[in-house]
Amino acid sequence: MSVLRIGTRASALALVQAEHVASLLRDGGAQVEVIPITTSGDRGRLLGDKSRWVKELEAALLADEVDVAVHSAKDVPAELPDGFVLAGVPARADARDALCGAASLEQLPDGAVVGTSSLRRAAELRALRPDLGVVALRGNVDTRLRKLADGQAAAIVLAVAGLERLDRGAAIGAVLDQLVPAPGQGALALETRADDDRARAAAAAITDADAAACLAAERALVRRLGATCHTPLGAHAVRTADGGLRLRSFVGLPDGSAWLRDELSAAAGIDPETFGVAAGTRLLAAGAAELLARAEQAGAGSPPPASTPEGVPL
Length: 314
Ligand SMILES: NCc1[nH]cc(CCC(=O)O)c1CC(=O)O
Known about the structure:
Layout: E1 4-9, H1 12-27, E2 32-37, H2 51-62, E3 68-72, E4 84-88, E5 97-100, E6 113-115, H3 119-128, E7 133-135, H4 141-149, E8 155-159, H5 160-165, E9 172-176, E10 188-193, H6 197-205, H7 209-225, E11 233-239, E12 245-252, E13 259-266, H8 272-285, H9 288-301
Parallel strand pairs: 1-2, 1-3, 6-7, 6-8
Antiparallel strand pairs: 3-10, 4-10, 5-8, 5-9, 11-12, 12-13
Helix pairs in contact: 7-8
The structure holds the ligand NCc1[nH]cc(CCC(=O)O)c1CC(=O)O.
The ligand NCc1[nH]cc(CCC(=O)O)c1CC(=O)O is lined by residues 72, 74-75, 158-159, 161-162, 185-186, 310-311, 314.
């Protein structure tokens, strides 16, 4: 059988993730090659849309340069272009956010400045601690940790999953259970050409059913809200002990002055997408649309902490 080509961005985090997927596939007996693709995002071009990284890997899929694209699921837009499918989701890593530079949110002094380029993290932090300042911190994980060490912020927020994959778990001061993670955070999304049965089967073979169901629910909620990467939105689903699903969500203004939080559970057997749509409908009924419109206006008037909620190429 011919070699399966795994496309990835060339950042340190993306390469670790792609190697992880490659080793899962090799464990299943496949012959695999990892092909780093340099994207316009990685080249530092200023485009206000995180889908740029995804698009360049889709171009490589379309050009038949790679067979499976590995993405951080939270960077993948809610809708894929025609001709592509989300063909697999491996077991999810820790989905939560981490605070680096302080032992807890409570221990940060009054008015402390936290570094993040994520609208969601800014909104969630300020919803909990309106006194906190937020400063945009860009760059990959190591760059941001260096900026923290340089004193550019009292603390920063990063995904636990990214820190651990890069062996920087020691930098975690506290895991922020109070924050609702970004949709897809901690999960990997394997994208293939829709008509490539071999690649689809390979991706499906290393799929974790719970991770796939949770991601499907979170992405359905994003679609129901019409959310984009400029939306301060958190959504995190888990499989419950009785085989059902539980979905927590957050929508708020970037300055933390208004927000909605929700939690919805469903019994075993619920279709994840139906569940995600229902959770989105509940948020809309509670006023999410107005909040999102106001968040977008705020973003248009004065530049948000960063161009995208989850920030910059890593
Ligand atoms: N867009 C940034 C990004 N995309 C994926 C991760 C971390 C790994 C993950 O969430 O799967 C990060 C960094 C961060 O938010 O700290």
